[in-house]
Amino acid sequence: MSNTLANETHQRSLKDFLTLYNVITEYCFSKCVSNFNERRASTNETSCVDICTDNYVQYNQRFMFNFVDHQERRKRDLERIAVEEAAKAAQAAPTEQVTPAQEQQIQKVAELLENLSSASSPSLKL
Fold this sequence. Notes:
Blueprint: H1 2-32, H2 43-92, H3 100-118
């Protein structure tokens, strides 16, 4: 089962890479190559393609870094909201007897709160 998942993940990564490669190639070629009278690309065209691909790759890396950062913040916010809602629900019914399932849920909420407080200032590693 996990081998199939790993294979699918690998295929997806390869597909994403090839799609990005094709987009970069098409964009930079159409932007930089204009003279089809010569067999080889001119020095200016080669330089333009190099700069174009470098800029595109740098942009893509920054975009993905920001995307991952945004997803992590969003996940933390959703966890915080879930914890707050669980705490409100626990406060709303204090007179009821706590069942073992509710006790487990309270314990999970407490652990989440502890994790959130310890991860309140995360540092992203590159």
